[in-house]
Every structure is written in structure tokens, then in C-alpha cells.
Amino acid sequence: MTDVAHAHHSAPASPTGWHRLTAPGWLRVLWVTPIGFGIGVGLPLLLRWAAGWHPLWDGTVLVTVELVTTPLFFLVGLGGFDYWAHYASGRPTRPEDHSGHGAHSWRDYFRINTDHKVIGVQYVVTTIVFFMIGGLLAMLFRAELAQPGDQFFNPQTFNVLVSNHAALMIFLFIIPAFAGLGNYVIPLMLGAADMAFPRLNALSFWLLPMAGLILIAGMVTPGGGPSAGWTCYAPLCSHQPLGQVFFNMGVQWAGASSIMTALNFLVTIITMRAPGMTFWRMPLLVWANFTTSLLVVIATPFIAGSQFFVMFDRVMHTNFFEHDGGGYVLGYQHIFWFYSHPAVYIMMLPGFGIISEVISVMSRKPVFGYRLMALSLMAILVLGFSVWAHHMFVAGMAGWLRVPMMVTSMVIAVPTGIKIFSWLATMWNGRIHMTTPMLFALGFLSMFVIGGLSGIYLASVPIDIHASDTYFIVAHIHYVLFGGSVFTIFAGIYYWFPKMTGRMYDERLGKLHFWLTFTGFNLTFFPMHYIGLQGMPRRVADYAGRFADINLFISIASFGLGASTLVFLYNMVHSWKHGEVAEGNPWRALTLEWQVSSPPPIFNFDEIPQVIGNPYEYGVPGARHAIFGAPHPEPVGAD
Amino acid sequence: MRRGSVLQLVGLGAVAAAITTAVAVLIPWLPESASKESTRIHFVYWFTTVIAIVVFAAVVAVLAYSVIHFRARPDDDSDGPPTHGHTTLEIVWTAIPAVLVTAISIVSAVVLAQNGRAGSDPLVVKVTAQQFAWEFTYPNGKTYGSLTLPKGRHVKLDITAKDVIHSFWVPEFSQKQDAVPGQHNTLVVTPTHLGTFPVICTELCGLGHALMRSHTDVVTPAKFADFMKNGESAGPPGLAVFQQNGCSSCHTFKPANATGKIGPDLDELKASAAKANRGPLDKFIEESIVDPSAYVAPGFSDGVMPHIYKQQISADQLQQLVQYLSQGAK
């Protein structure tokens, strides 16, 4: 079995001569992408000429069509659609030789690669690049905010910086970073050789750099970048400079990537579990990604809809959200938040999964109340769809909707509380090892409690009426998304770094990174609660003089917070090259990804594991999660 | 659990609660309350804060205790006891938060209902928001660029917008409401303190958002009656037009105390007009207001100044505004 699996993934014969231009890859990108660009220019011109519309040359229309055709043809050039194109056109599909699978050199990370481990690394590295860019934008506008009045940027540029900081952090860092970690770990945890749809997986990764480049290109578009905030409220958003179109379309590519990955996760988790891996034996990270993927599949089409409608209003002069044309202005917010509130859980549940893994392993104890932990994830999934209008308490929506939405928003604190208390109980009486992932897990736990509690304030309609759209909101979302999501991403990256790279990170630098980040984070965001309640609105380049000192303090702290990331970068880059070689299971964990070498073999498992027990049986004498080389693997479901 | 460890846990919780309470009480988190509604909202805030302090202190105490007492030595390879759960405990920590959030919900719903009541005879003021100015219209038909309210009377604000979404907020009133094109939203305020408070736009509405500010004067009922009778805004008629249309959000103009920096400096109007060379000063000013794209001053972009003033400003008002600007210009 082992020999067969390895025999036919020997390095493929490289194409020669003219075939190098037609084979999938960067050479083909070089000539196919311009064709896509040409079609993007030619098609609208041709149609407008045929229909006799003037002016022939309409910048907005051209840009909108370009942002569909150019990325699409880039993906065609890279080879994202080759296999399906062969199949759809009736030609014989190429037999799978696994030549596109796995990484033998760094070049293999820059092509369509079907190995979930390569894709996982591609995701994590790409998202960290966008994290850096997003953080840099934040430091630029914090420099502007260090003093009242206009210093470095005019209001247009300031609004662009604020809008793109949020858009990059949400759509190109937090959501896809979790998708990347999940990509790497989930098949390994399930005992599977790969994801259910490896080619779809490769395609969904390559949509992401496209989306990021579109958002960044929007910032430098002549006429001005997207400046209506990441929430892009209509009708303001429909009347912004040309760069806004880049935002509307960039979000579509990121959303499509997200939906494809979620479908892939769902099918993988449902169909690819190793023998004996029942749902109640799955690690909580898998449970978390299962619920998250359901959220993504149901909710993400709504943000696609909201951005399409705004684009239609702008480009085709429809009136979805234009009051003068009979549109419903608040309709935008209902559609937008029907995605964007569940998106908060899309950005949090995978982090919950990571924390469950880290706390259990580092405390050497089973996860406390495992089944209730899984069920509370499902409860958050269901409740998450019934709270969107708490973003609209002051928007002027139907008055009766406020109290029911307040109650559901409050109730969602109950399953979240169950998770917090269960993690604490997991640590209780444990043998706690304060490694870097554990530090970030504990940092998450304490900061997320603060973010959760300020969430209770905001769920209460009267308090929200005072605090909405102020810096209190800015403080709250950063305690949830930075103190929450970003800390869990760091915990996950440190925890699986040995598995992904085969080397250990530097523990001292890891701890230094944690303490600098933790301190910088609190100094930056905690004072924002105060200035918000006192009367400073969000998204302003200029503010009342009495907030000058505290804003200067926040700006200085934010530069420290930004600088702390350099420690992380150095640690990652240096340890990846020169770190101590990691063994297969440095944390003595029981889940399946740690039962293979670091990094794992190209098809993950030389033998299919037989799952025989729960994943967190620390302290149970003789307990095993899985065994290898079982003579007669039992079918799934045998308990 | 031994008694010693229970005591220690409670001690840690007490310390955490004491520090959190100090942070909550010693820092003046909320602005002074200047309306009945605000006082009620402050009550909900403090009610929630007490619960938040208890929950936070409990979590921090358990976390700190665990890190102190259950920390393993680096060479300790042993595992903890295999505790898988505890049904009673799990029911307790599901039930207690449920009770707490129910309590907050009830208090919030009651306050929300009270804060929506405007009584039988409220003063109704129409609030119209536009990029980037506020307009307040009183029952007698007069319109002002700032809000004047009598102390102690229910005021019902009827809020709408002309262009994009804005949001009306006075921090000292704690009441906020979005102004949405095509919708009339209401907000009830009952001022309890005399004084001048800022009116702030809190919904991103474009380039002048940060400067979309006005103020509200809370005066005695006698003064308010006087204001309703003779409340012509002081100064030349052109100044009122200037203020109502939000010119000061974007332009600097000393006679009107305007300090906006998005558009050209109107103190330099004469020099600009000479540079533009588009006829006499009056004509140039008028053209720039009704058709901002006709000439764009160097260093500024076209399309920033709204093209709405041709419809919005009546012919009489336009003459007043042009006269006011040309006289004030150096």
C-alpha cells in the first residue's frame, strides 16, 4: 500500500518547448491575463457601441467588468480550471499522477497545489502578509489621530485608510487565517489523506491574493479609494469615488473563496473521517470548523448580495437603496448584517476550537464537558442568525424589532459563558505548561471575557443608543477580534508550527511576543472605551481638543503594538530555517495530527488509523485515541 | 477542595473585584447627565456594570488560582486527573448567566419603553441632516443651525436626512438616532440641565463627517418663550444661510467663525477670484455655489462640494449669501 501510494507521485516530466507556454503556470499567466484584460475592455466597448450608448468609454463600467475578467483569466493561466475544463469539454481527463501534490521546493508554494498541507501554509503566510499591511494602515491613521486637526492625511485619505484597515483584517486576515489553519489540520485530525475536493481547495486559495490585490489597488485608484467604511453603508457607498468599485468586487472574490472552503470542510468532515471517528470522537477544532462552515455557507451569499446591489445602484443606476428612486435605504443594513453578524462567529468559532485543543493539551486534562462544548457551538450557530439587527438599534428600523433582538443577543452570552467556564474547569487541577500557545490561550480567555462583557452593554438597547458608533464600539470589536480572534490565531500558529515546519519556534521570543502584544493591546484599546462613552465618534480624522492627550497615548501604544509583531515575524522566519528539529509529537498530544512525523508524509498517513477512543483522554491509564495497523478496521459508527 | 484553597480563591476574587470596582468608579466613564432619558440610561449602565464586575472577578480569580497552583514543572510529564465533566456544575453555569442576562434585558426593556414616551404635549422640532450640516425647524416655521431647548419639557425630535445617512447624538442626553433619507425617525429628550452641549454626527457621511457639528442650548422656559417670539438669529441674514447650509464644515471664514479645511479658504476669496479670472467677485461666488464644477480651485478636487445648492438655496437666500461672502472677503 505504502509503495503504491509513493510510486506514482514521482516528479512529473517538465514540459518543453512550446508546451511550456500552454502548460499551467506563470508563463501561461503572462499571456492569458492580458487576454482577460482585453476582453474586459473590449466587451463593454462593443456592447455600448452596438447599443449606441454615450459616452462609449465609461470608467466605472470598464473597471467593474475588468475586476471580473482579469482575475478569472489569471486563474485560468495558473491552471485553476484545467481539469474541469477538460471534463466539461468532453476531452479525456488526465489521469491523476499527483504531480500537483505536495511541495518539494519553495516553488511548489507558488503554483496550483492540491496538497491541503501546502495550501494551509499558503493561506497562513498570505494572510500574515495582509495582516502586516492592515496593521501598517492602522498605524498610519493612528499617526493622524495623535493630534486633533489635520496633520498628514486629508479626510478622504483618512477614510480610505480606516475602511481598508478593517476590510483587509476581516476579509483577508482573520477569516482566511482560520481557513488556512483548518486546511492544514482538519484532514490530519480526521485521519484523511487530504480534503474531499483538493482542486477546489487550490482554487479557493488562489482567489484570496486576487481579492487582496483588488482591495489594495482600490486604495490607489485615481479619484480616490473606497472611503465609506468597511460596512460600506448605502447610499453613501453608492456615490463614492471609483475606488469603491474595487471594494465591492474585491469582497466578492474573498467571499467566493470563503464559501468554497466551507463546502470543502463540510464534505471532508462528513465523508472523510477515519474508521471509528464518530462525530462524538472528533476533536473540538473539527467541531468548530464544522459549525463555522455551516455559518459561511448560509450567510456569505448575503454579503455578496449586498455588494452586488450597491454595485448595480452605482453602475446600472438601479434603485435598490436609493430613496429617490423608490429604494429602501435600511434594506442594505439588514442584508449586510445578516451576513456580518454571523461573520463575527465565523471569526470566533474556529478560535474557540484552537483554544480547546491548546488548553486541554497544555493542562494535561480532558476537555471539561466535551459534549456540552460541541453543543454550545451549535447553539451559537443557530442563535447567531437571530441577532443581526442589534447593529441597527439606532438605525430607525421597525421599533418592535429592538427588544426581541436584544433578548437573543443576550441569550447568546449563555453558550459563550459555558465555553469560558468549561475551559477554566479544564485547567482546574491540571498540570499546566505555560508555553507560548498556552499564554496566548490564557490571554484570549481574559481579553475575550472583557470583550464579551462590553458586548452585554451593547446588547442592552438603551446603553447601545448612547454608545453606538462611538469609540466604545471600536474598543469592543478589538477586544473581540484582536483579544479574541487574533490571539487564538497566534496560539494556533505557535501550537502547530512544529507540525507545519518540522522545527520548533524559539520559546523565549514567543513569550516576549506574547507579553509585548498583550501589553500593547490593552494600552491601545482599553482607553477607547472611555473616549467613546465620553463623546468621541468613530471614523473621524479630527476630534474635540479635550481628547487630545488620551489619543496621543493611544497612538504611541499602537505603535508599540505594531512593533511587537516584528518579534513574531523574526521568530517565525528564523525558526523555520534554523529552529531546533521538532519531533512528531512535541506536546505529547493525543489527536491524530501529532501521531505522524513533523512535517507529515505527503499523503499524511502511511496506514489508515483506526479510531478507538476520545481525543482528550489525558490522565486515563492506557487510553488511546487511535491505533495504527489494526487488522480489521471497524466501520465508522461502531462505538 | 480544602478550606485553605477556598479562602485563597475567594481572596483572589475579592482583590480582582476591588481593582475592577476602583477602575469603574474612580474614572468618570460617562459624561454628565443632562436629560431624564440619560439618567435612566446611566442606571442601566451601572446595573450592568455591577454584574460585569462580579463575572469578571470570578473568571480572573479562577484563572489566577489555576496558573499559580496547577503550574507544572518543566520536567513534570504526568497528567492531571481525568475529570470529564460535572453535570450539576454545568447546569449551574448555564443557569446563572441566563438569569443575569434576563435581569439586564428586563431593566433595559423597561428603560427603553420609558425613554420613548414624549407625554401629551411635547415640543416637536424637525431635525434635517445633510452633508455636512444640521437644520432645526420649530413649530413656528423658523429654522436654525443650532438647537435651543427649554429645560424640563418633553421634546420630540423628528429626524430625517436629505442625502445620505447621518446620526444625531448629544452625549449629555445619551440619546442617539440615525437620520435616514426618506424616513422620519423620532427621538425623545427631556433636558434637565441648563447649558450648552455638542451635537455630533456619528454616522460616517462623507468627507466633512468629522466637522458635522452643531450645539444645543438648554435654556429656562421663560427664555425659550422669548426665543420662540423673537428668535431671529443674530447677525446679517447671509450668516444664517451660511450656517444652515453647513458651509462652515468645509470652509474657513473668519466673520462666521468657520474653520473647515476641506474646501478653499473663503477669507482668501478675493485673491482666488482674481486667479480664477471669471468675471466680477459676485458672479464668481454665485457660480461657485450653484455650479461648483465650473471652476475648481487649484489643489482641490472636483466633486467634493455637493451640487445640491442650486435647488436648496432660494434666489433671495442666494443673494444674501453672496452679499455676505463678498463683504466679508478680504
Estimate the mean pLDDT confidence of chain B: 90
Query: Biggest interface pair, residues each?
Result: A-B, 91 and 87 residues
Q: Helical stretch count of chain B?
A: 9
- State the shape of chain A: globular
**With helices defined by DSSP (H or I, 4 residues minimum), what is the helix count of chain A?**
20
- Gyration radius of chain B, to the nearest Å? 29 Å
- Going across the major beta sheet of chain A, what is the strand order? 1-2
Distance between the termini of chain B: 83 Å
Kindly state the mean pLDDT of chain A as a whole number?
A: 92
> Helicity range of the residues of chain B?
40-55%
CATH superfamily of the largest domain in chain B: Cupredoxins -  blue copper proteins
| Quaternary assembly | heterodimer
Uncertain stretches of chain B: none
Written description of the protein model:
The complex is a heterodimer of chains A (639) and B (330). Chain A is mainly α and 639 residues long. Helices cover 64% and strands 1% of the residues of chain A. Chain A folds into two domains: 21-89, no CATH class; 109-578, Cytochrome c oxidase-like, subunit I domain (Cytochrome C Oxidase, Chain A, Up-down Bundle), CATH 1.20.210.10. Chain A has 20 helices and two strands. In chain A, α6 runs parallel beside α8, α6 (116-145) runs antiparallel to α20 (548-578) and α7 runs parallel beside α18 (471-501). The two termini of chain A are 27 Å apart. Chain B is an alpha+beta fold and 330 residues long. Chain B folds into three domains: 3-66 and 88-115; 123-230, Cupredoxins -  blue copper proteins (Immunoglobulin-like); 237-328, Cytochrome Bc1 Complex, Chain D, domain 2. Chain B has helices at residues 3-26, 36-69, 87-115, 221-230, 237-244, 269-276, 281-290, 309-312, 315-328, and strands spanning 123-130, 133-137, 143-144, 147-150, 155-161, 166-170, 175-179, 185-189, 195-201, 213-219, 252-253, 258-259. In chain B, the strands form three sheets. Chain B has a five-stranded mixed sheet, with helices on one face. Chain B has a five-stranded mixed sheet with strand order 4-10-9-6-7, with helices on one face. The longest helix of chain B is centred in the first third of the chain and has 34 residues, at 36-69. The mean pLDDT of chain B is 90. Chains A and B meet through α7, α13, α14, α15 and α16 of A and α2, α3, β7 and β9 of B.
